């Protein structure tokens, strides 16, 4: 090999090595400074969209919170269904917050399985669906106001006159809907129509049967409506923040798999702990007006915060003696708490362990029908059902727990007086004389009737 050829091969090898180095290092040696990497416009746009979504959720979430506080401040009847109309002797029934939420939820869930083509082929398709809903709604609210002393809350004489016939009216509506549904069945569409009927009944259970407990909660005191709502809000918010901060850092295993891929064990556990602490701390800060049952406020006008009542025993301080086996150097011999704080621990556990599965159930429906949200009525939050999916089972649990462990007797002295005053004059006299005779046997003396 000649010296000239050797020099050519050596130069070629040097150029080839330099070319490979430039390809791997972007054309710069280790001692040279590399230019800054260019930002990916897609990643930048994605980050901006995420930030805008968070801001939108915060803004409209805050507006919803203030709206809820305003409705709560207006009182029990505004929160539910009836309100007296100024200038009219007979009150008119107006749908308020709970009823509007029920209507919105039913509409969203009905639309999940809506088919325009089938809708045109089936007579009274929408009418029958809404008929089943309103028939159950009438029966649900009627049962709520048929309890002892509850009828006195209604100012409309027409509704009061129909209330004793609630069961008959409900039976007539059910019979009419049953006959109408059968008459609308069409050959070739039986399977689809039966599927739609089953779906309608299912969402009636979700939107009416579960929400029936909200009526009892509101009438027992706005605390029993607002407190469980706040527990779910706390759990949802803290699970989100705990998931963002600690998600998949301690537990790699997915929480619910494909059903809700963004949920993590850290978020579920962290949200639960924060909710239980929140449940224990917050009850003493509720004002008296929110604790008063509805019979204390029904004859009073204006905002709820102007009124007061005798504080129930559940909300009065009680001294609890701690067990002797607890270390005395760490804990005192006794503590003073409100009994509601201990009850709140149970409700907080339920809000942490069970209520979130109402949201997971809603996620299952959306996965089944390829939906992102049930509607877009609330910017950044989706539909109404997207916001209250966990609230439904929580309200039902609160009503059940209250009726079992807190309420006690269904009758109070105030309700007994209201029932007696609702009787005709002759029957009132019989009640008074019977009560006087019973008390006389026990050694009490009542003043004579003038």
TrEMBL record:
The keyword Nucleus does not apply. Keywords: Lipid biosynthesis, Lipid metabolism, Membrane, Nucleotidyltransferase, Phospholipid biosynthesis, Phospholipid metabolism, Transferase, Transmembrane, Transmembrane helix. It is a multi-pass membrane protein. The chain crosses the membrane at residues 58-81, 162-185, 197-216, 222-246, 267-286, 340-362. Residues 1-19, 31-46 have a biased composition (Basic and acidic residues). One of its GO terms (biological process) is CDP-diacylglycerol biosynthetic process. Belongs to the CDS family. The lineage of its organism: Eukaryota, Haptista, Haptophyta, Prymnesiophyceae, Prymnesiales. It is found in: Membrane. PANTHER family: PHOSPHATIDATE CYTIDYLYLTRANSFERASE, PHOSPHATIDATE CYTIDYLYLTRANSFERASE, PHOTORECEPTOR-SPECIFIC. Residues 1-46 are annotated as: Disordered. It catalyses: a 1,2-diacyl-sn-glycero-3-phosphate + CTP + H(+) = a CDP-1,2-diacyl-sn-glycerol + diphosphate. InterPro entries: PC_Trfase_euk. Pathway: Lipid metabolism; Phospholipid metabolism; CDP-diacylglycerol biosynthesis; CDP-diacylglycerol from sn-glycerol 3-phosphate: step 3/3. This is phosphatidate cytidylyltransferase. The keyword Oxidoreductase does not apply. Its EC number is 2.7.7.41. GO terms for molecular function: phosphatidate cytidylyltransferase activity. GO terms for cellular component: endoplasmic reticulum membrane. It is an enzyme of class 2 (transferase).
């Amino acid at each position: 090999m000649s010296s000239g050829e050797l020099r050519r091969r050596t130069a070629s090898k040097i150029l080839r090595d330099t070319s490979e180095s430039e390809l791997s290092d972007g054309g710069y040696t280790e001692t040279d400074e590399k230019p800054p990497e260019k930002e990916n416009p897609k990643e930048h746009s994605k980050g901006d969209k995420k930030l805008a979504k968070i801001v939108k959720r915060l803004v409209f979430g805050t507006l919803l919170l203030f709206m809820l506080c305003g409705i709560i401040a207006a009182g029990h009847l505004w929160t539910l269904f009836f309100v007296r109309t100024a200038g009219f002797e007979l009150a008119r029934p107006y749908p308020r917050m709970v009823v509007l939420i029920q209507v919105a939820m039913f509409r969203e869930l009905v639309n999940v399985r809506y088919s325009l083509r089938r809708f045109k082929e089936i007579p009274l398709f929408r009418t029958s669906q809404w008929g089943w809903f309103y028939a159950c709604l009438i029966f649900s609210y009627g049962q709520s106001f048929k309890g002892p002393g509850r009828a006195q809350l209604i100012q409309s004489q027409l509704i009061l006159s129909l209330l004793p016939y609630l069961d008959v009216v409900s039976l007539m509506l059910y019979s009419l809907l049953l006959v109408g549904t059968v008459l609308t069945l069409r050959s070739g569409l039986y399977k689809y129509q039966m599927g739609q009927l089953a779906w309608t009944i299912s969402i009636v259970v979700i939107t009416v049967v579960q929400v029936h407990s909200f009526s009892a909660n509101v009438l027992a005191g706005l605390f029993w409506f607002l407190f469980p709502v706040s527990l779910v809000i706390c759990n949802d918010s803290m699970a989100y923040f705990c998931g963002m901060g600690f998600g998949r850092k301690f537990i790699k295993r997915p929480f619910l798999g494909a059903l809700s891929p963004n949920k993590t064990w850290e978020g579920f556990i962290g949200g639960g702990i924060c909710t239980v602490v929140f449940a224990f701390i917050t009850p003493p800060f509720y004002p008296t007006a929110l604790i008063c049952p509805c019979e204390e406020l029904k004859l009073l006008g204006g905002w709820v915060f102007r009124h007061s009542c005798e504080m129930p025993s559940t909300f009065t301080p009680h001294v609890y003696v701690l067990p002797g086996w607890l270390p005395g150097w760490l804990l005192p011999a006794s503590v003073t708490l409100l009994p509601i704080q201990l009850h709140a621990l149970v409700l907080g556990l339920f809000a942490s362990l069970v209520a979130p599965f109402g949201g997971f159930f809603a996620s299952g429906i959306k996965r089944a029908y390829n939906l992102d949200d049930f509607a877009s009525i609330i910017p950044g939050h989706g539909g109404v059902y997207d916001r209250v999916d966990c609230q439904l089972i929580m309200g039902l649990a609160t009503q059940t727990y209250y009726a079992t462990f807190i309420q006690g007797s269904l009758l109070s002295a105030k309700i007994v007086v209201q029932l007696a005053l609702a009787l005709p004059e002759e029957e009132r006299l019989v009640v008074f004389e019977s009560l006087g005779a019973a008390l006389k046997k026990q050694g009490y003396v009542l003043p004579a009737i003038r």
